[in-house]
Amino acid sequence: MGRLSELDKVKSCPSTYVLAINDTMNVLNGKWKLPIMAALGFGKKRFRELERDIPNITPRMLSKELKDLEANGVLKRIVHDSMPVVVEYELTPSGYSLETVLDSMIEWGLHHRKTFIGKH
């Protein structure tokens, strides 16, 4: 943690850190939000592309999670004025700012799968 020197001085976790973690978890809670964000990390995608990229997600759940992420400012829905109407989803700057977190999670998950899950 980049805040260890501050924590050493205080000897307890500041309440602002706990609130920040809770805020983050409230936005990213659930099974599907991080996979959706990871898929959008590769660029704009349409609904069906997201369905293909994320195995086992139902259209209803994808729709719900996209609405939640949009309401929390993590992604934006872009409606193109065309015939037929084309809708794309894209991460916002706030969503892209989680890229290092997602990269770390991917790295950890790949290592964990190789060293722990592969042995069981």
Automatic annotation (TrEMBL):
Boundaries of every HTH hxlR-type domain copy: 13-117
Keywords from the named record: DNA-binding, Transcription, Transcription regulation
Origin superkingdom: Bacteria
Family matches, as InterPro entries: HTH_HxlR, WH-like_DNA-bd_sf, WH_DNA-bd_sf
One Pfam match: HxlR
Protein name: Winged helix-turn-helix transcriptional regulator
UniProt source species: Ohtaekwangia kribbensis
